[in-house]
Design a protein that fits this description.
The chain has seven helices and two strands; from the N terminus they run αααααββαα. It is mainly α. Helix 1 packs across helix 2. The protein is elongated.
Amino acid sequence: MTNRTPLQRPNRIPLSHEAEMDLRYGDLPKRPAFADAEERKAAWFAHRELLLRHCRGGQRPAGWWDYESPFPYPGRDSAAAALFEAELLTEAEVAELTARWREDFERAQDPRFRFRARSTWLDCAAARKAHYRWSGIPRDLLKRWTREHRRRNRRIRQLEAGSGDPAPAA
């Protein structure tokens, strides 16, 4: 005889591979995983914790965008920035994405930076703009980092020209 108490688990709707892929990535029109929209919605809410547990880097499953998002899906390249701006990311996601976006921003500051857009190589400001769009850097961060970068460059030029503040006395 054992003293263990059986775990009470909710009776979940079994989720097939096709149904899980539908809720993660969106439906396949030629191969519907659910009989109707109500069945799909019920499956989302029955399995949302499992599906959300695997979210990283500002991405959300299709089911979240369909049933819980406060705004329409902005597209894969803009989703993380939209979630950031709406303050719907976890602290870990904010830290991960901010570090990646900052790295992408700094890479584009190199005077020799080039970016390939389709079959054309872009230089200078056009390359940076295309790279920022591709990276999905939120507008607010981009504005703040650009101001910081300009201030830093201005200060470096002042120091190189010898017109900077005098060194503090020892």
